[in-house]
Amino acid sequence: MVEVSGVSKRYGTIQALSDVTIAFPPGITGLLGPNGSGKSTLIKALLGLARTHQGEGQVLGMPWPRDVRAIRDSVGYLPEDDCYIAGLTGIESVAFMAQLSGLPGTEGLRRAHEIMDFCDIGEERYREVETYSTGMRQKLKFAQALVHDPPLLILDEPTTGLDPDQRKAMLSRIATLARTHQKSIILSTHILHDVRSVCQQVVMLVHGQVRLSDSLANLQRPSAPTMHVTVSGDSDALVAHIERQGHTVTVQRDGSLKIEGVDPTDTAVVWKWAADAGAAIRRLQPAENSLDQIFFDVARAEPAAAEQLSYGPEASDGRS
Ligand SMILES: Nc1ncnc2c1ncn2[C@@H]1O[C@H](COP(=O)(O)OP(=O)(O)OP(=O)(O)O)[C@@H](O)[C@H]1O
After folding, report:
1. ipTM of the assembly?
2. Is 262 a domain residue?
3. Pocket lined around ligand 1, Cβ cut-off 6 Å
4. Which atom of ligand 1 is nearest to the CA of 41?
5. Which of 165, 197, 219 is where one domain is finished?
6. Mean residue pLDDT across the chain
7. Which residues contact 179 (CB under 8 A, 6 or more apart)?
8. pLDDT tens digits, residue range 58-97?
9. Alpha carbon of 290 to ligand 1 centroid (Å)
10. pLDDT of 98-138, one tens digit each?
11. Residue of the CA atom closest to atom 5 of ligand 1
12. Could you tell which of 7, 17, 37 is best to mutate to test the pocket of ligand 1, judged by most ligand atoms within 8 Å of the CB?
């Protein structure tokens, strides 16, 4: 969907992007990075809203940066900052965006209602937008980005300021758009939980440079076959028994075990070891690498950057 190479951008003495070469495939890609890492600048560069000093590529098959105007017509953009025209109601705002995108008045209004229903904006659509709460404003920006039915959506921090229920609903809408409506989505965030929830790919920027670009499936796959086992009660006897078989066992923060060198299809051997050691297995599954740990390691070169990533359920529920 998007492929650019050698993109650099400076604001005065600040190097916001440094020789960024990146591809965003179809599906949902998380654009991750701590504050100031260049996420918004990359997005603005792709849309021609920030002039780049170097770089070229294509967006939706159109040459970039040469055809940024045509590119903008085909992209739905949810900016990080508030963007509304005071005095307009919600429905007028979204219908106005539809008209700016070339939809005739009646069709634009019909489409605005349809998309506001999808975004769960009820009677509030008839209120002036400056009276909206933060959550409502996020939904309004989302509706404005979607109203012209673009194939590519670029969402800059769409869940910022949302309470847990609203965040869940927003992520669910994003997943539906990709799954049911075949939209490709670039989701910029510093919230790892959002990336884990809906993304298939992840790109990570730190200090304006690409530090990671891969599918989540690849990142989560351990380099060696590994089983993840949770037992009831004390696991010491089981750990000792498995180590005597020549396998490395790592005890996780939540007391569960990762056993290296066991093929995930060969569960029988783990059941036998548990029986030998008198241990009761509560849960047995192929192990996955912890995304939190991967992202933390990537950002760790800059301790301040690692601190700014927001983790979430994976970290707190003890899985790793
Ligand atoms: N208009 C501007 N003028 C000067 N410096 C800017 C401007 N916009 C961004 N920067 C700087 O460029 C760098 C990258 O900023 P950018 O907003 O792209 O990062 P970000 O990853 O989107 O951060 P955040 O998560 O806080 O939104 C930062 O050092 C920022 O201060």
Report:
1. 0.96
2. yes
3. 11, 14, 16, 33, 35-41, 80, 190
4. 18
5. 219
6. 89
7. none
8. 999 999 999 999 999 999 999 988 888 889 999 999 999 9
9. 29
10. 999 888 889 999 999 999 999 999 999 999 999 999 899 99
11. 11
12. 37
**Of all helices (H) and strands (E), which one includes residue 251?**
strand 249-251
Q: Per the domain annotation, does 86 fall within a domain?
A: yes
Q: At what angle do helices 236-244 and 267-277 cross, to 10 degrees?
A: 120
Last residue in a domain, options 162, 192, 219: 219
Same domain (yes/no): 172, 234: no
Q: Establish how many alpha carbons lie within 13 A of residue 2's alpha carbon, considering only the half-sphere containing its beta carbon.
A: 29
Ligand 1 centroid to Cα of residue 208, in Å, is 9
| Closest C-alpha residue for ligand 1 atom 7 | 11
CA 283–ligand 1 middle distance (angstroms) = 45
